[in-house]
Specification:
alpha+beta, Glutamine Phosphoribosylpyrophosphate, subunit 1, domain 1, 8-stranded mixed β-sheet, 5-stranded mixed β-sheet, 10 helices, 13 strands, 32% helix, binds aspartic acid
């Protein structure tokens, strides 16, 4: 039994581990851990108080995958509701679908009885968004930003690829050996409205298969989509590679991407025996894990596979 998470999952990892200690399922553990991160206003990359899109609207992406059945659920560009991970789980368990986006996701949240959250940001976070658009846009122009027909240009200006991203990853393996992965994010700050990252894309930011292991990503989601990173890592284990070999291989796939918009990528993974790993393309990144016999989580450095950044 184990819970592995990105380091910003610290606030939720004890709750997740406690569920495993009490004999609960990996699915329940992952959902409980991520809900605490989504509710944490100090995390500007997940759930409440996440950085908004270019229009100043918080849009959430999340997914969950059950490694026993390969059932999956995801929501993308969800507005006005906080617990995207619970909604992703409900897509997985209540609908014959895998991915709901935008208005359809909000509609389903209302149907499932989620409380609406009309204000998803604190005023200081709104001010960060506003300041990011200065000095290019005046107050009057910001007030009219939803009417603009040149948003693509402003997205490029406002984006800071090194600082404006983040996501939470949770992977749990329960007493029965079942694995579940969950990913939740407010995505890339100042993104184009409707942009989905890797977090709601099964196989890109999230994949779990009890028979081999699981993986989840944070970082430049477009890269994980292009390389099918989470699925590739699990697939490499299926082909007989060890956890370390599969992780290195998934990172080198990302490094070998050609073209533009190459930035930071990170992943966490476990194999079917509960061995864990964390990788990053840059120094100084860590991940956490906790087993039921540990009173608190341990933080470990991620192994670095450098990926030279390229932008624009
Ligand atoms: N992967 C997320 C996304 O692209 C952001 C991140 O983890 O930094 O939306």
């Amino acid at each position: 039994m184990i819970v592995v998470a990105s380091s910003n999952g610290r606030i939720g990892i004890e709750a997740a581990t406690q569920i495993l200690r009490q004999g609960g399922t990996a699915v329940d553990a992952v959902e409980a851990g991520i809900r605490l991160v989504e509710a944490n206003p100090e995390d500007n990359t997940v759930g409440f108080n996440g950085y908004p899109n270019i229009l100043g609207e918080v849009e959430l992406d999340a997914s969950m995958m059950n490694g026993r059945t390969l059932e999956s659920g995801a929501v993308g560009a969800l507005k006005g509701y906080l617990h995207a991970i619970t909604l992703a789980r409900q897509v997985m368990e209540r609908l014959p679908h895998v991915l709901l986006v935008g208005d359809g996701a909000s509609r389903f949240a209302a149907e499932m009885g989620h409380p609406p959250q009309p204000e998803m940001m604190l005023p200081e976070t709104r001010a960060v968004w506003r300041n990011r658009l200065q000095p290019e846009l005046s107050d009057a122009e910001v007030a009219q930003i939803a009417e603009r027909t040149d948003l693509a240009r402003w997205v490029e200006l406002a984006t800071d690829p090194e600082r404006a991203k983040g996501t939470v990853n949770f992977i749990a393996q329960d007493k029965a050996g079942n694995i579940c992965t969950g990913v939740s994010t407010s995505g890339w700050a100042w993104k184009y409205p409707g942009r989905l990252g890797d977090s709601p894309i099964i196989g890109a930011g999230n994949y779990a298969d009890n028979r081999y292991g699981a993986a989840a990503c944070t970082g430049m989601g477009e890269m994980a989509i292009r390389a099918s990173t989470a699925h590739s890592l699990v697939f490499y284990m299926k082909m007989g590679l060890s956890l370390a070999e599969a992780s290195e291989r998934a990172m080198t796939d990302l490094r070998d991407l050609d073209g533009r918009f190459i930035s930071v990528m990170n992943l966490v993974a476990i194999d079917k025996d509960g061995n864990h790993a964390g990788y990053s393309s840059v120094d100084g990144r860590s991940y956490i894990y906790q087993t039921p016999d540990m009173p608190e989580c341990e933080e470990l450095p991620r192994t670095v596979v450098p990926i030279p950044p390229r932008w624009g």
